């Protein structure tokens, strides 16, 4: 009987392809839009992922997300070090600086000031494309990120020694590193903390974050709690801070709504195309269904056959659609060299799209089932 | 063919590609290790502070007594100097010139006094004495003339007699005057005039001495060692010259806080630990601990408590900016570094960890 169902499905090639195209299109649209959305959201946290080496971010109580910097007193660092369970803690500057380029143009920069002694938060060796980390200790030295270099100097190949002017001071680019694409798209500059302070207009407080590491035998959340209790600051693990930042963008920007609408659109279009084609296809095959019914095939069996058809269509459609989305990302990420791409293809996208495809094919098959189940066998003879 | 095999196969391949892309995006890099491991504390309950190395005597910032141009500097950075040794000297030409003037004044005063002491001048007396003799002779002459006139009795006119009597009186008075003049000269200078002159000499002398002292003040010397003997780790009495900020030809003023030369007695090094005001409640004297130089967590220096600075001061921000930024207040505690390792330098910043669980 299943063979009959398959023959029925593939009998009309145009309709068969139509259904698969509907499902595949829906899956492609949803998968691709969700990936871009996730990529965009993930880009907001790129600095949290770039600054590695520590477990815990300590910040002012009112910080809402990673770019919302509220500088603290330098002494807070010592207080955090005094908290039980904190293995070490170092300072970190993260903020926006303004650089003057050779051509007189101004450019905003994401400035990351690393602890002078330890350079905690520096890019790991495999992320450094040119130069050595130790070069950061040279006077006025900065590292720039790959996208930043292209942003500033176009197609010019990297060469150390290029200078920028920040806060009337000279910044010499001594190295280049890979960084995760950012949301703000500004070039990223790495330098030492004391250097970063000089690259900024005079402020009374400059300590924006404290990077801490908890003792290995303690849960990080517990160390965070201890820091918050003892110092009154806000302490979050990397993951917590990641989600705090994403949550901020979800709540405060129109991005989730816009992308949600597109995803919904994909879903609706997919439902419409696939459902309609499947339904039409069932209608056209009503005679065959009637014959089967007249032959005494049970309703349960018929339902099974329809479901089988739906599953086949859904599987192929989903595979093609999600593969297309992946291909889009693959090409997109390689084609974009001057600007950081926003595309994240996580397992959640595969699962989410699959769930939507299941709903689409279920909805389509339910419509068809209703027709077949309430079909009179006599229709064959009309 | 297409519908039955190729399409499902295509779907499968596409799906496999998607899964491969997904796993690639999902890949998590192993946790990164900091380039230099930050200073760690082994204590369960700890108190952290930033410290700065200083000599046992603290930093002695040598100033100058007087403003002026530096003529010569006698010490180099790193020299060991004993107390009292000249460190640098200012230009002394002006004071030398003043000294000559003052000495001349002194000589003047001394000569004046000498003159008074040697009065009267011997040559001045004979004329006066002669004058007295003349006046005596004159009185004698006048007296004789009067006596002769009186002997005439009534023959002498009344008018003549009166004139002669007056002439005797005038001659007597003139004699008195000549005698008095002689006595004045013979007496020499008046006692009180001599006293005035003597004090003028003293004043001039004092001024000469004053200029002499000012001249010695132009030379700045290493101060005498004088601090709590219990703090002294050894009996060495030499300073190390830590910094020389003065060079010949420079103008130095008497501005407060200007460190022309920094001296320190380096017996054992001390570390001045800043403890945040919020943590003062957790600090108790005598907490044990250790210090680590910045950027080298593998070296630990044991430290022992010396004293607490009882005055809580505004914290100097140690960001390396030349403009100090004051943001909070800190309690300063002095610890001694119990190590003879001289890999530490005065002024070096340290990470200090104190064991807050002990010392209750």
- If you average the pLDDT of chain B, what whole number results? 84
Superfamily (CATH H level) name of the largest domain in chain B: Efflux pump adaptor protein, beta barrel domain
What's the total number of strands of chain B? 15
Q: Strand content of the residues of chain B, in percent? A: 15-25%
Major sheet of chain A: 6 strands, mixed, barrel
H-E order of chain B: HEEEEEHHHHEEEEEEEEEE
Q: State the secondary-structure class of chain B.
A: alpha+beta
Largest sheet of chain B: 6 strands, antiparallel, barrel
Topology, number of strands of chain A = 10
Q: How many helical stretches of chain B?
A: 5
Number of domains of chain A: 2
- CATH architectural label of the largest domain in chain B: Beta Barrel
Enumerate the spans of chain B where pLDDT stays under 50 for 5 or more consecutive residues: 318-325
Strand order of the largest sheet of chain A: 2-3-8-5-7-6
Order of helices and strands of chain A: HHHEHEEEEHEEEHEHEHHHHH
Here the CATH topology of the largest domain in chain B equals: Elongation Factor Tu (Ef-tu), domain 3
Task: Tell me what the structure shows.
The complex is a heterodimer of chains A (382) and B (360). A 6-stranded mixed β-barrel of chain A has the order 2-3-8-5-7-6. Chain A has helices at 2-11, 13-43, 46-50, 75-81, 146-153, 193-198, 220-231, 238-252, 255-284, 286-294, 299-335, 347-373; strands at 56-59, 86-100, 106-114, 128-130, 141-145, 163-166, 169-177, 188-192, 209-214, 234-237. Helices cover 52% and strands 17% of the residues of chain A. Chain A is α+β, with helices and mostly antiparallel strands and 382 residues long. Chain A has 12 helices and 10 strands. With 360 residues, chain B is an alpha+beta fold. Chain B has 3 domains: 32-55 and 269-360, Efflux pump adaptor protein, beta barrel domain (Elongation Factor Tu (Ef-tu), domain 3); 59-90 and 219-265, OB fold (Dihydrolipoamide Acetyltransferase, E2P), CATH 2.40.50; 120-188, Helix Hairpins (Orthogonal Bundle). Chain B has helices at 2-26, 93-117, 125-151, 158-187, 191-217; strands at 46-54, 60-62, 68-73, 80-81, 86-90, 219-221, 239-244, 251-252, 261-264, 270-276, 289-293, 301-308, 313-314, 329-337, 349-355. In chain B, the strands form 3 sheets. Chain B has a 6-stranded antiparallel β-barrel with strand order 1-10-14-12-11-15. A 4-stranded antiparallel beta sheet of chain B has the order 2-9-7-4, with no helix packed on it. A 4-stranded antiparallel beta sheet of chain B has the order 6-5-3-8. Chain B is rod-shaped, with a radius of gyration of 48 Å.
